[in-house]
Amino acid sequence: MKKYDLIIIGGGPAGTPVAMEYAKLNPEKKVLLVDKNGELGGECLFEGCIPSKIMKEISQTSKSWEEIKNFKKEILQKRSKAAKENLPKNVELLKANATFFASHAIEIDNEIYEFEKCVIGVGSKPNIPNYAGNGVDKIWTNVDFFKNMQLPKTLSIIGTGAIAIEFTQILADLGVKINLFSRSNTILKKIDNDAKQLVLENLKKHPNINLIFEANIKEINFENQFEIIYTQNNQTKTIYCDKVLSAIGRSANISNLNLEKAEIKYDKHGIITNKHLQTSNPNVYANGDVVSGFPAFAHTAFYGAHIIAQNLFLNHNFFEIDFDKNSWVLFSNPNIATSGISELEANKRGLDIIIDKYNFNIDAKAQITHTDNGFLKFIVEKKSLKVIGVVIVHQEANQIAGEAALIVSNQMKLKDIISTIHPHPTLSESFSNLSKQMMGKWMMQKLKNPIIETLLEMERNI
Ligand SMILES: Cc1cc2nc3c(=O)[nH]c(=O)nc-3n(C[C@H](O)[C@H](O)[C@H](O)COP(=O)(O)OP(=O)(O)OC[C@H]3O[C@@H](n4cnc5c(N)ncnc54)[C@H](O)[C@@H]3O)c2cc1C
Fold it and tell me: Does the domain made of 136-246 have the CATH classification 3.40.50.2000?
């Protein structure tokens, strides 16, 4: 029987950084990192964040599909090689499929590996729709797309979340004719209505995109090409295309882990953890897409990995997760970046907030770069003037999303942003411009109150 201080299952963003950080902090400890593909980077590197953003970058240039394929190969190889080379010496990387054997042990190829602590980071897999028809098992997911790297002439995409929208716009820019199927009459249901409006307009006016909304797919058949039979406005319709790509949500990879043997509880969304990402088995932690209710991003997995590594190092559950300060970017056209609580969520929680926007059409940098379509929006707690949410809609919102993340995560007030000197002309100036705009309105409102009351309130908030 082999024994390790820490065993990590999964070499993606949820697992690899725990191995790196923990092993560096504890050079005397033995760490085993098991990945079924024997590669580091997970879905993010091979079939997710990185290849999709490579395509996005290059779809805006005049590079050929061959050049895109070669560039993708080069970047993926470079990154996975570097990750392996950077593994500390006390980490052993094993290419294998791990399952649990007991509360302190996993099993790999009939061999038992005992651990003091274990971290599960096995990710999630794309859901496959269960329509009728002989074409369903030929439907592509993101995994098939990036494995094949073929550009079909016509592609039907099912889904209206982030993955579906990114694929639709990128591939349409690369010349693919897209049918985008939505069961509802809109897209991106978790995003504020005003923020998704510009993306929706761009989808509608793109010559290669055909939006098929309020459509109920009934059957998908395949014979030389795909045949999609669906109902819309009480009519049955049929469409033909070369390929179909499904992006209708994801499920945690828990079915083959034998979690019961280690007394690890789960629900239909994944492994259940507490705020320290500890499972019902106190020696086992879980991180990333495999965790129930966990925001499915690479950066949230990196964040979770740091919390687990630190708590394991301290041998005490000191740090805990807080996803109210999460940030993410939809790499659509224009980008939508969100930090903290959206307007939709704030209203759902009944929070007392004030909201205001800064339009990029008055912004110097946006005007210079011909990117003046879009806005910056703050969701501010009325009582404290603390910025609890930021939404940025702009072609390059990803470039300034980090500042939004810092503001929200550090619970900054309008006055903190105003007192920051932002360089001119940059898009980041929008943060101080919007703060001044909101503070100005707030002061004008307050000056209508008795002067003593106003002065006391200003002292608190300015
Ligand atoms: C198309 C697409 C675009 C995306 N774009 C972004 C983006 O721009 N930004 C962002 O932050 N996120 C993005 N994501 C999400 C991101 O890829 C995931 O949230 C992230 O990869 C989750 O990391 P993870 O480590 O939990 O899982 P994974 O990355 O899936 O890694 C899990 C690892 O576990 C291994 N494994 C699985 N089962 C076992 C087993 N039994 N034994 C051993 N090893 C096992 C797998 O081989 C894999 O390496 C995107 C996803 C997709 C699909």
Answer: no
